[in-house]
Design goal:
The protein is an alpha/beta fold and about 575 residues long. It has helices at about 25-35, 45-50, 60-70, 85-90, 140-145, 180-190, 205-220, 295-300, 315, 330-350, 370-375, 390-400, 445-450; strands spanning about 5-10, 15-20, 115-120, 150-155, 165, 175, 195-205, 225, 245-250, 260-265, 285, 300-305, 325-330, 355, 380-385, 405-410, 435-445, 465-470, 475-480, 490-500, 505-515, 520-530, 535-545, 550-560. A hairpin with a 6-residue loop joins strand 18 (about 465-470) and strand 19 (about 475-480). Its EC number is 3.1.4.11.
């Protein structure tokens, strides 16, 4: 980076700004002094730093030496260890992340599916809004590559009624063939994770087309399809048991009704022979008729049975000892239900699956607060993966946990009653379990990843950071640093403390914005990290764009401590 930068204000006038070099914060200088000798941090010094500051208790001298050797290109002055500049660059390097990638999948994976939060998509085939965007297999592929494990397909007859399309019904969305989506799922299901993929079907088909779908699914997935038969499971298998398997979930088929009364033709029923000269009158089948028209081969593919059944919320949330199932509620239904049935929902989700989906008026494919559903045990919190914004950033954060495999073990508070036999209530007054102290030292990388006039036409940017918690209501908060004017490398050096009552459900939200006096502040990066998996100590935190794609260079230097 050059030492000065010029901005053209008008034809005859230019402004020049001095560009500060990236310099280690005072805290980093103090730590280097403590863990070095005569300006050199050797492998033993670095091992002590890793153990005592970074909480990497098992670090060895050999591992510390390997870190020094891997970053020799950053260290120009000492062969046997880091100087201050080298140490500072190491702290800001990709080799010092806020989550430990080497942990991989480390949650227990042998519990029933109902014991996990599962990365879930809503209308997974849509490329944009809910009313007029194209339907495609591309967003399905993208979701699977990101680790999404539940794909939703709305299946409808095509225009000639002889094949099956995927589309958002009764809208202007353009369809995509079901078979194309199924093949793309098979080819991409286990690229990001080997744990099971669930396909939830919203079925608007005749029995004839249901049979056709059963044939498509069977031929496409073959042996990787988990299909235990037509009866409800007594308990869900585990993600470990279902590794590299595909599972179908939908309502068991009932009569296909085009309206309240439908005429049923000969291909749908085995009619008794009739001796009348003019043939029998066509029989009207009403919604309350006992006769069932269904494709048995389709029913047998359904491993996770869905449906609300009769009655109201109390009946929907019944827990049966001999069967498990999936219940779907809209975000509005859930918010209304938790006021009266909050504990019943938590109890229901200890054995059964709860899927929550966006309310119907979210035509722009926006999303909702997932913590309301997660804190009541809902496993499948269905999101529009193209609905970029803060809610989706929190979703991304949750599923960075457990190696990004798409399954995150629910905390014990949601799975078992407490010492007094009570189930968890996220809105109850709870004691503080721990306090997360976050130091926001500084940031860098915008100069390389953005045009120099991206944030401000006439001067360098004025950055500030927002840091906070997404969690149960009592833990949820956002705080803000001061704004630093005209600086591509802001050094805020500010400390924030977050008392946490339910750290198991807490996510650390981080955003950077550029202050704009006359217009809306500019977005400059974000990330969200599961608090339970934060690496302690001083860490380089990479930021992502609105869509969740990591920037090449933009990072914050931060410190995480539990006090």
């Amino acid at each position: 980076m050059s030492s000065k930068q010029t901005y053209r204000v008008c034809f005859c006038f230019r402004r020049r700004f001095r560009l500060a070099a990236s310099e280690a914060p005072a805290d980093v200088k103090d730590i280097f002094t403590r863990y070095s000798d005569n300006g050199v941090m050797d492998a033993e010094h670095l091992r002590r730093f890793l153990a005592e500051v970074q909480d990497q208790k098992a670090a060895t001298v050999d591992q510390a030496q390997a870190i020094i050797d891997s970053l020799k290109h950053l260290n120009l002055f000492h062969r046997r260890g880091f100087n201050l500049e080298g140490f500072f660059k190491y702290l800001f390097a990709d080799a010092n992340p806020p989550l430990d990638a080497q942990l991989g999948v480390h949650h227990e994976m042998s519990a029933p599916l109902s014991h996990y939060f599962i990365y879930t998509g809503h209308n997974s085939y849509l490329t944009g809004n809910q009313l007029s965007s194209d339907c495609s297999d591309v967003p399905i592929i993208n979701a699977l590559h990101r680790g999404v494990r539940v794909i939703e397909l709305d299946i409808w007859p095509n225009s000639t009624g002889d094949n099956v399309n995927v589309l958002h019904g009764r809208t202007l969305t353009t369809p995509v063939e079901l078979i194309k989506c199924l093949k793309s799922i098979k080819e991409n299901a286990f690229v990001a994770s080997e744990y099971p993929v669930v396909i939830t079907l919203e079925d608007h088909l005749t029995p004839v087309l249901q049979a056709k779908v059963a044939e498509m699914i069977t031929q496409t997935f073959g042996d990787i399809l988990f299909a235990p038969g037509s009866e409800c499971l007594k308990e869900f298998p585990s993600p470990e048991f279902l590794k590299k398997r595909v599972i179908i979930s939908t309502k068991p088929p009932k009569e296909y009704l085009k309206a309240k009364d439908v005429k049923v033709n000969e291909s749908d029923l085995n009619k008794e022979k009739d001796d009348e000269a003019w043939g029998s009158e066509p029989k009207n089948y009403k919604s309350n008729d006992k006769a069932q028209i269904e494709a048995p081969e389709y029913r047998q593919l359904i491993a996770i049975h869905a449906g609300k059944g009769k009655g109201g919320m109390k009946d929907w949330l019944k827990v049966y000892p001999d069967k498990v199932r999936r219940l779907s509620l809209s975000e509005q239904e859930l918010e209304k239900a938790i006021t009266e049935y909050g504990k019943d929902i938590v109890r229901f989700t200890q054995r059964n699956l709860l899927r929550v989906y966006p309310k119907g008026i979210r035509f722009d494919s926006s999303n909702y607060n997932p913590l309301i559903a997660w804190s009541h045990g809902a496993q499948m919190v269905a999101f529009n993966m193209q609905g970029y914004g803060r809610s989706l950033w929190v979703m991304h954060g949750m599923f960075r946990a457990n190696g990004g495999c798409g399954y995150v073990k629910k905390p014990d508070i949601l799975l078992k009653p407490d010492a007094y036999g009570e189930v968890f209530d996220p809105n109850a007054s709870l004691p503080v379990k721990t306090t997360l102290r976050v130091t926001v030292y500084m940031g860098e990388g915008w100069y390389y990843d953005f045009r120099h006039t991206h944030f401000d036409t006439y001067s360098p940017p004025d950055f500030y950071a927002r840091v906070g918690i997404a969690g149960v209501p009592a833990d949820t908060v956002m705080k803000k640093t001061k704004t630093l004017e005209d600086n591509w490398i802001p050094t805020w050096d500010e400390v924030f403390e977050f008392p946490l009552r339910v750290p198991e459900l807490a996510l650390l939200r981080i955003e950077v914005h550029e202050y704009d006096m006359s217009e809306k502040d500019d977005f400059a990066g974000q990330t969200c990290l599961p608090v339970a998996e934060l690496c302690k100590g001083i860490r380089a935190v990479p930021l992502h764009n609105r869509k969740g794609v990591k920037y090449n260079n933009v990072k914050l230097l931060m410190r995480f401590e539990f006090v």
